[in-house]
Structure formats: C-alpha cells, structure tokens
C-alpha cells in the first residue's frame, strides 16, 4: 500500500508539473472584437515580438499593444494571456476614419545616438551611431516572423548628443564674464556639458567661446 501510495503521489506531482510547464506555452491565439478582420496583421505583430503558437510566452511587452494600435482605424487594443491562449481584443472606429500619416522619424540634428526606443516601427540607427540632419531613425514599418514588412505608424524617440558652441561678448576678461558665458551655454540647452572654453580679444573687448554638448530628444507620436 505504501508503495502504491508513493507511486500515486509521484504521478500526481509529475502531472501537476507538466500542467504548470504547459501554461508557459501558447497553444492558441484569438483575435476578437470589431477588429477581428485584422487577425493576420495582429498575428504577424505578435510573431515579430516572439509570441506564436508552440512557443513559451512570458509577460507581454507594451510595444505589442502600441504596434497593434498603430494599425489603421484601430481605437482600442488589449492583449492578455489566459492559460495557454493569447487573447487579443481589437476594436476599430466606424467607417470613414482615415489612417494617420505614416512618416518616419528623421533626425532634426547631427550628433551621436545615445538611446533609441521604437515602440512602433523599425529602428534604422543604433546607439553610438553618428547621424546627420535628415537621417532616418525609425521607419514606418515592422517585420513579420517570415521577414515580410507591414506598414505602421512610427512611435518612439531618440536621445541624440549634439556638439555646439556659443560666443558671448564682454568688455574685458573677468570671472564674471566667464560665468556669463557658461550660463549662456546652460540657457542654450538645459544640462549642457562644457567641453572647453577660451577667450580672444576683439576691438571692443573680448569674446568668450564655450564648446559644449547636450542631449536633443527627437520623438514621434509620443503624445
């Protein structure tokens, strides 16, 4: 009897372990709501985020909801994992709602990318990369699990470190003149980091030149 009872306990424990392990996997994806017709695009977005049938799934990233919300006419989206199923509730607005313009996030300044976050869209730059004015930072598309591309709205931001200089005139060289020049750099860009400063004589006094860097934040659809 003891052996039989022990075997039953071991079997029950093994069954529970299998059930618990299975809960980590996705065996079904359901797209519900008035936007159910967008199921192919929704499934592609999920696949691009690593959520697909037969694969383990942990916490759903907020970027999944952002990408689905970027689909034309979508007004609401909720993504939940219930047991072994991922339930995506998508609601669309009434007919006649025009999709927002799909434009990329372009760099408005020249500098070095310190951080790039693409909530929706495909990053086109990397941290540490130098960019110029007009370079594409995030493109209005995302890739499906098989490499196919789907159009979407861009949503994200970039922190770009910019190098700049400012010149301030003074009647004569002095500590107060230097302080005024350094303050001007701070007024130019909050959080400016001074690299160097120098002073040169001119016909009407002196001119302080302050070289500094600052962080410029470029964003799109982050309201």
Task: Give the arrangement of secondary structure elements.
Layout: H1 2-22, E1 28-32, H2 39-48, H3 62-69, E2 74-82, E3 85-92, E4 105-106, E5 111-120, E6 122-123, E7 130-131, E8 136-139, E9 141-143, E10 149-151, E11 155-170, H4 175-188, E12 193-202, E13 205-220
Parallel strand pairs: 1-3
Antiparallel strand pairs: 2-3, 4-8, 5-7, 5-11, 6-8, 9-10, 11-13, 12-13
Structural overview:
By secondary structure, the protein is an alpha+beta fold. 24% of the residues lie in helices and 40% in strands. It contains 4 helices and 13 strands. Strands 7-5-11-13-12 form a 5-stranded antiparallel β-sheet. The longest helix has 21 residues, at 2-22. It is elongated and about 95 Å long.
Concise synopsis of the structure shown:
The chain has helices at 2-22, 39-48, 62-69, 175-188, and strands spanning 28-32, 74-82, 85-92, 105-106, 111-120, 122-123, 130-131, 136-139, 141-143, 149-151, 155-170, 193-202, 205-220. The protein is of the alpha+beta class and 223 residues long. The strands form 4 sheets. It has a 5-stranded antiparallel β-sheet. It has a 3-stranded mixed β-sheet with strand order 1-3-2, covered by helices on one side.
